[in-house]
Design brief:
Wheat Germ Agglutinin (Isolectin 2), domain 1; 48% helix; 10 helices; disulfide bond; Recoverin, domain 1; BM-40-SPARC; SPARC_FS; mainly alpha; binds 2-acetamido-2-deoxy-beta-D-glucopyranose
Amino acid sequence: MRSTWLLLCLGLLALTLVRAEENEIEDALSDIDLDENDEEFLLLLEEKNKNHDVERENEIAQKLAEAQHKLLNPVVEVDPCETMFCGAGRICQLNKGKPECICIPECPEESDTRRHVCTNKNETWSSDCAVYQQRCWCDIKAEGCRDPDNAHLHIDYYGACHESRTCDGEDLKDFPRRMRDWLFNVMRDLAERDELTDHYMQMELEAETNHSRRWSNAAVWKWCDLDGDTDRSVSRHELFPIRAPLVSLEHCIAPFLESCDSNNDHRITLIEWGACLELDAEDLKERCDDVQKAAPHLLG
Ligand SMILES: *[C@@H]1O[C@H](CO)[C@@H](O)[C@H](O)[C@H]1NC(C)=O
Ligand SMILES: *[C@@H]1O[C@H](CO)[C@@H](O)[C@H](O)[C@H]1NC(C)=O
């Protein structure tokens, strides 16, 4: 009988005071006329609830800790070097578990003269790796550095240094036509090998089916492709991928590319590019696929 009254009392208290502050609860309790036994019973109940709360808190805390542990210590061990990008001539190495870029310790031995490269200092080196390694060593002032200037060493073209053959007037005159043809063939080749993005695949298909788009689409595609930093102009540095491999074979490529930068500001706009390929400016619409820049194969 007495406990029924108490439970009722407690229920009422709980309902009315759910959001009340602690001191208010105490005030309310003292307002109710309870004898000592009842008070003891209340304290017991309170204690039990408190214990239950602590249990529940522990349970939640443990679950949280487990989740956090899983986040911090994933079961699948990932090599930290896998996500590290080191520049040319450098490789990633773990140092006390931390990834670090170091100069590549050894370059593959190259006896094939086709692997030789000619630097901007007109010196023949055995491979591109050797040039980048040298640059790295000079960059960090390591022992293998032969000349402090080599910190700025770069490849001028692939193949041994040779006498610069002059590109005479007739050859240079015919070069834009050959270049256009070459660009279209490279684009077609990549399309056949399924190595173009959907966007450029579409442009290639247009070039195949609409003769008036044949050269212009290929020219736009290559220009976009060369513009690595997508600033809508191709710097002389960005010309490297078409210049360096061709200089030994095509003595006209260097003067030709030089001629593309008609205002000599070291940048080639799409209009300048079109003009040096002798294409109509009206046919050149800037249609770069910026999505491709996220593709990792372009880093290689
Ligand atoms: C570069 O070196 C080659 C051969 O070593 C030489 O024939 C040529 O004249 C040099 N070119 C320049 C621009 O010095
Ligand atoms: C072919 O290309 C030209 C020039 O861009 C364009 O005006 C013409 O509509 C195209 N023809 C077809 C059939 O798509």
